[in-house]
Amino acid sequence: MSGLPDPQAARDARLANLAAAKKRMEGTPARTGIPGIEAGEEQVRDTAAERIRQLQEAQAKGAAPPPPMQDGFNNIRFNGKRWDREKNPVDTWGPGFVDRWLNNQVARANANIQRLKKDRTAFKDAVLSAVPTTLFVLVPVFALMLKVAYFFRRRLYMEHIVVALHSHAFLCLDLLLVLLVRALEGWVAPNPGALATVFGWIEGLLIAWMPIYLLLMQKRVYAQGWPMTLLKYWLLGTCYTVLLSFAIVASMAIGLVAM
Q1: What residue segments make up the domains of the chain, in order of their start?
Q2: Which of 35, 100, 106, 251 has minimal CB crowding within 10 Å?
Q3: Which of 179, 219, 227 is nearest to 202 (CA)?
Q4: Residue 220 and residue 166: Cα distance in Å, rounded?
Q5: How far is Cα 158 from Cα 164, in angstroms, rounded to an integer?
Q6: Is residue 90 a contact partner of residue 99, using CB atoms and an 8 Å limit?
Q7: Measuring CA to CA, which residue among 142, 170, 133 is closest to residue 178?
Q8: Is the pTM of this model over 0.85?
Q9: What pLDDT digit, counting tens, does each position of 166-220 carry?
Q10: Are 19 and 31 in contact (CB under 8 A)?
Q11: How does 173-185 read in b/e, with b if 16+ C-beta sit within 10 Å?
């Protein structure tokens, strides 16, 4: 069938390259990237199948073949299928204008995925620009978690806000120091050696100081015994880690749309 060998040959060549990359990763620390390669294989198959379908329809109608799809076109999926504004749109329980807005954002994110192949720093910049807003939203939420955890201490909510602000300010400052140490290491000690080891220890101590400082602060501010403090610290830390994970994913989604 005219036009079909090209997408089939391209599909087979890409699958062969991905299979070779996956084989090289097996048995190495880099094997964590295998699920990503498998997802890429599925995308290659879907893209080739869609191209073949387009060519078949064009041939049946006697029309000119449509232009080839862009590499990686329509990378977003819903309900196990590629997103399509007409055939497989985002459909929620909300009113129509909400679904239309969501589909517009998906279309924008899908178009921005193509930009990433040309400008890989754009996504990083967009995500970093969304981080301050994310942390700002998390402060009152974390304060509410403290209010629940220390409900019987009869502290005002504003007192918990101060604690949350202090905690987030400390984390931001400590992370800034970690980034500065990494940048300094890349400039002063780019190669392995004694100096690079010293920088590694400094970075490790800065990271380890985060949970230790937050535990000591919680113990001093709320003045409870160590067993109860450790229990609440563990509960708050677990809940906040889950919350932060969702917030990071949200920041990435916002950054992808805001590019």
Answers
A1: 1-73, 76-118, 121-258
A2: 35
A3: 179
A4: 13
A5: 10
A6: yes
A7: 170
A8: no
A9: 999 998 899 889 989 988 988 888 888 888 899 899 999 999 999 999 999 999 9
A10: no
A11: ebeeebeebeeeb
d(C-alpha 230, C-alpha 241), whole Å: 16
Q: Which two tokens stand for residue 52?
A: 């073949």
Show the tokens assigned to 201: 């220890």
Helix/strand/coil (H/E/C) assignment for every residue in the chain:
CCCCHHHHHHHHHHHHHHHHHHHHHCCCHHHHHHHHHHHHHHHHHHHHHHHHHHHHHHHHHCCCCCCCCCCCCCCCEECCEECECCCECCCCCCCHHHHHHHHHHHHHHHHHHHHHCCCCHHHHHHHHHHHHHHHHHHHHHHHHHHHHHCHHHCCCHHHHHHHHHHHHHHHHHHHHHHHHHHHHHHHHCCCCCHHHHHHHHHHHHHHHHHHHHHHHHHHHHHCCCHHHHHHHHHHHHHHHHHHHHHHHHHHHHHHHHHC
Could you give the CA distance from residue 71 to residue 169 in angstroms, rounded to a whole number?
A: 42
